[in-house]
Amino acid sequence: MSKKLLDETSKFLSFVLRHEPQAIGLNLNSEGWANIEALISGAARDGRHLSRELIENVVTSSDKKRFTISADGHCIRAVQGHSTKSVDLQFEQKQPPQTLYHGTATRFLDSIHKQGLIPGQRHQVHLSDEIATASAVGQRYGTPVVLKVAAKQMEEQGFKFYQAENGVWLTEQVPARFLAPL
Ligand code: HQG
């Protein structure tokens, strides 16, 4: 199975499981789960051939562990990153480390200094406990820059933090006073 096919399929799964399930007539339940048979037949109507084997390979080879298959093997979901309004993943609250990192592009810095970090289309702001990961995330939108987030201090002041199954840290927003350059 080629890396190209796995990458393309991963992008397609991110699109339908995080953002636009209706594009292939797929239903996600409130926790983001989609039936795998329905996913395969919805994709087929869209001219995309998925198989159970291909889906399982994407799940196991995903560098960021983006997807998970349910214990009974019938369903799949994205573990974070959603924008679709009908899904509300109930993340468990968790104590963050002293510092977390957010990767962004330099062209967003002026706005971030004014507004802090806001979720945009997604449900939460995404943070990482690794500088390298944050930098790679920032690179997607232009010249990357990594910001330090005073996560522990935020938590002490009542902000809530969550961690997705794949290690990505999430919070509702980060006011600018908790941000510093790396
Ligand atoms: C920026 C990927 C202007 C923010 C990654 C980011 C991640 C502001 C962009 C996950 C702003 C939103 C999420 C403000 C934030 N003014 N710009 N006030 N506040 N921004 O893609 O965090 O590979 O929705 O810095 O690994 O980049 O897809 O969020 O640049 O975990 O699995 O607005 O997506 O995961 O962009 O990335 P995004 P993100 P996958």
Describe the structure in your own words.
It is a single chain. The chain is an alpha+beta fold and 182 residues long. The protein folds into 2 domains: 76 residues, RNA 2'-phosphotransferase, Tpt1/KptA family, N-terminal domain (Arc Repressor Mutant, subunit A, Orthogonal Bundle), CATH 1.10.10; 82 residues, ADP-ribosylation fold, CATH 3.20.170. The chain is 32% helix and 18% strand. The chain contains 6 helices and 9 strands. The strands form 3 sheets. A 3-stranded antiparallel beta sheet has the order 1-3-2. Strand 7 and strand 8 form a beta hairpin. The longest helix has 17 residues. The radius of gyration is 17 Å and the shape is elongated. The model has no long low-confidence stretch (mean pLDDT 97). The protein binds ligand HQG. The site of ligand HQG has 19 residues, from strand 4 and helix 4.
Supply database-style keywords:
alpha+beta; transferase activity; 182 residues; Arc Repressor Mutant, subunit A; 6 helices; 3-stranded antiparallel sheet; binds ligand HQG; single chain; NAD; 2 domains; ADP-ribosylation fold; RNA_2'-PTrans_N; 32% helix
